[in-house]
Amino acid sequence: MLKGFRDFIARGNVIDLAVAVVIGAAFTTIVNAIVSGIVNPLIALIFQAETLDQALVFQVPTLTGGETTFSFGLVIGAIINFLAVAVVVYFAFVMPMNKLKERQEAKARAAALAAGVVEPEVPLSETELLIQIRDLLAEQSSGASGTHGSHSA
User: Fold this and answer.
1) d(Cα 59, Cα 68) in Å, to the nearest integer?
2) In 12-152, where do the E strands start and end?
3) Which residues contact 149 (CB under 8 A, 6 or more apart)?
4) What is the pTM of this model?
5) pLDDT digits (tens, 9 = 90+) for 101-133
6) Cβ–Cβ contacts within 10 Å for residue 77, how many?
7) Could you tell me which residues come within 8 angstroms of residue 55 by beta carbon, excluding any fewer than 6 positions away?
8) Can you tell me where the transmembrane regions are (predicted)?
9) Tens digit of each residue's pLDDT (9 = 90 or more) over 12-22
10) What domains does the chain contain, in order, with CATH numbers?
């Protein structure tokens, strides 16, 4: 039973998930600092409110005689917060990891080429491609018409 648990924990997925949660918590702190240190003062300049929670707030009478509050600023603040997290995650993690994977794949391809395991991919020139198309069309037309005609290249 302990061996199964150890194997489960040792799998890359669990470790990756744990790292993601820790980094996500750290990013939350950074994003909150950006929002409170930069975004909220900008909002105070524009909307004369300390935070987006207090900006774009509308009181609307209800059918029962009370009032309800629509806080569009709160929604805009959540969107800004999400976009800030997405931008930081993309530029700090996704883009560098993609570049790293591309480099690793290129090195693996180069090593395979050097070992003679894989042939290099050489794109066909336009002329070579047209010659192949011509030959395929010639084969198709000679196959469809039987042995009546012959095409010369």
Assistant:
1) 6
2) 57-61, 67-71
3) 141, 142
4) 0.48
5) 899 988 988 888 788 776 667 777 888 888 989
6) 21
7) 43, 46, 47, 49, 73, 76
8) 12-35, 70-93
9) 677 777 778 88
10) 2-140 (1.10.1200.120)
